[in-house]
Amino acid sequence: MCFLFLLSKLTFSLSTFEGLSLCIQLGKEFIGVEDFVEQLGLEQHNLNTDTLKVALTNTLPVNTQTVFDAVTNHAAPAAANGYTAGGEDVTNTWSESGGTATLAGSDITYTASGGNLGPFRYMVLYNDTNATDMLVAYYDHGSEVTLADGESFVFDVLTNLFTLA
Asked: What domain range is 156 assigned to?
């Protein structure tokens, strides 16, 4: 089984968690957290109706973490200047065709307004509907970003967040 995360068109790499191959296609490494596969099998995620969010943080997420924690593990920028506490909804939809399931989502644009937004380096995808805010994956931008007033940063989903086949 292969999870295909599509966030950029530039590179392809493979990783493994919990016995499944994780196919990653994007400009930098998008890392699926180990617990996601197990919790998906235990029906902790309804990818059709649950709200998935992307939150910004400047703290490196750990692949073995299971839940999003904006205070301790994933300290976020202040909820000001264009950033909403807890991140933004990717407006996900789940579909299946020919045995391949697809989780689609929308691009998210963060725009600094009224001051700087940041710093942040990582974007954390998590299930906000789940009572414990279970982690799905995170993206490492590669360097710290602070947006000056009026500047924008786009979390570009392209076609979809990932596929299961």
From this structure: 2-164
